[in-house]
Amino acid sequence: MKILYWTDFFLPHIGGIETFSANLIPALQARGHDVTVLTSNHSGRLPTSEQMGAIPVHRLAIWESLRTNDLKALFAVRKAVAEIKRELNPDIVHLHFGASALYHLQTQTADGPPTLTTVHALPRSSLADNSLFSKVVHASQAVNTVSKNGLQILNGAYPEQADRFSFVYCGLGPSGQDAIEVIPPAFDEPLLLCLGRLTPQKGFDVALRAFARIESEVPRARLMIVGEGVEEDALKQLAAALGISHKVDFIGAVPPQDVFGVINRATMVL
Fold this sequence. Notes:
single chain, 270 residues, alpha/beta, 8-stranded mixed sheet, 4-stranded parallel sheet, 9 helices, globular
């Protein structure tokens, strides 16, 4: 099967979807599928087409064209997407929903391949009738969420399409290490872990407020926040305002291969 794998960002960018994709695509290829990635050249400094190992990757100025709303750039990207689809002639498009989905809709034809859309986040604003997300849902033959809660939201918002919806958890791929010695969780000095991009939709502020409420009851507990992003300063200020800065460790980003060790150290992952 020829799969056009569509995602807003791909390696060498690091994030949840990028890491998930880096595990999923080789597994699909190992099963005999032909997978080509279409993504955004966010920085403009990466090759427009390259072979990353065994994975063909096409990068277009998707985000830049949407950000500037420049008609010439918009039409250029749309034309490039249509050419890639025509040359590849995929059997299916696996779309990880994001702003770049606009170009998929614009180049989708009635006799084109079916679309499987994976949804990683479902803000309520995206459920409006005329939203890009709603248009993608109606244009997809199948929509997958990564949680039961996401599936419930989809079923509630689009009950007439419930038979197209499913959920599959994003699993954590193999560590790449021969063996990891499992460290038993420490309950005498509990270490709570939050890991991900420090952006509003991740809800790290909720974790800080919750930790402040239980901190006095579990005085030896610590909260470790791993990741980087635009909310870092605001989260540190919130920790200070809540009086818990001395018990919250902002570690910053860690390489993907070190994530397993970080999780291993934690008593609980939030």
